[in-house]
Amino acid sequence: MTVPDVTVVTAVYNTMPYLTRCLTSVVEQTIGLDRLEIVAVDDGSTDGSGRELDRFAKAYPGTVKVIHQANSGGPAKPSNRALEVATGRYVFFIGSDDYLGPEALERLVAAADRQDADVVLGRMVGVNSRYIHQAIFESTQSDVDLFTSPLPFSLSNTKLFRRDLIERHKLRYPEDMPVGSDQPFTIEACYRARRISVLADYDYYFAVRRFNAHNITYKSRHLERLHCAESIMNFVGGLIEAGPRRDAVLLRHFAWEVARLLENDFLGLDRPTQASVQAGVRSLAERYLTDTIRDQLGIEARVRLALAWHGELDDLLAVIRQDADHGNPPTVVEDDRWYAEYPGFRDPRLGIPDHWFEITGSAAEWIARLDTVQVAFEGSRTLVVTARSPRPDLPHLASALKVMAGDDVPAETTELVPDITGTTIRARILLPALLTNLAPGGKLRLIQARIDAFGTTGTAPLRGPRRAVPQRVVVRRGARLHVLTATVNHKGQLIVAVAPVTPRRVMARLRRRLPLGGK
User: Fold this and answer.
1) CA–CA distance, 272 with 255 (Å, rounded to integer)
2) In this structure, are residues 87 and 7 in contact, taking their beta carbons and an 8 Å threshold?
3) How does pLDDT run across 21-47, given as a tens digit for each residue?
4) Contact 186, 120 (CB under 8 A)
5) Type and span of the H or E element at 17
């Protein structure tokens, strides 16, 4: 029996109708059915996903293998079960609501064979405004290192793995993690790999954000996410000895998983949950937060971690409320050193050293932090953003200030109007410019300010309006219509989501608006 080149594994739970596109994109791969094996595990679906898998298995006998099991509560158990029956030289994992570019598997396998790589990443793009960290995909590289590249910020399992690597090291998913179970698997695979390659020459993987957002990652709660962060970081602590290499991996987890636990939505939790989250974060900081990691964190994450570690719950809440309700705190400048005067700064009761609050190396970025006052679409041509800085001297400090939509679309005009209490900034962004360089599923554009000051360039996202109301406009480009939505992301930052109008999007919106039965 011929060994397939690649086994595609997908864990399935209630992902119709996205599942159909996912499976279609796999069976139509240019690598050909004779080089392909698909192992799909139905984890107790109740929406017809199991029947759809059986339909594909009947249509593609010998290629599509389906396993049905009772619901396990997460992707770990079905993924492990699929690995037990996989026979391909390589294994590729795909989310059952995502899909592949037509040549993805052929290109990935060819690169793995050519480079003798154990792990290969193909460029991922987000669909329906799903965020994908792009730093690792800036260029094609035959050999990247886990500890000196942005790879720790791209630890999903959506990669090509040499199956011999998986079996030699007995790599499996921890089944006690309802979310995030792919990260320990991916971290150890990359740690054990002889070579890791990155392909940035093609759109390999399309990661879909569902319209109903029922993906478990989106609906997981703080305590579940805390457990996930604890499990991952303890795994890393046991796998990699203390030092710069461990810090390089754990930086991602403090900057992402842990920092997200302390974002503004922390204020909405009940007090016992807040206390439990703070206790968990304090424990992680005591064990793993080194000076090296601390000094690479942004000021908001750094100060919140400082208060979670060294303060009481009310001290932590005061810092989060400062950002959520009042914006930037005052700045203290002493002997050319800059400090953010957050609650807790030089509080003798807490005794937190000044360097937790220091922003000297990012003074330009600090000055670029603006609070959005108003966002408005003017017809279908212009987005007008009005923002505010607490500094009346902003026009003098900044030799240049631009408001940007993403990294590549500057505002057509940016006007600064100082007064005795600060400076008002008005920027006009042309909407047709936001439709350039779009991925097939659209694009998220972060609205940010970029200034030149103190001999450096600083960039900071605009804080969204405190009473954010999403605003939408439809813009035509050629024969295509796009929906532009000005809103606020989970970090409280102003964004514009650009998405093509598709029949699926229209039907999803109608289903949300119409009562059951469409009457």
Assistant:
1) 24
2) yes
3) 999 999 999 999 999 999 999 999 999
4) no
5) none
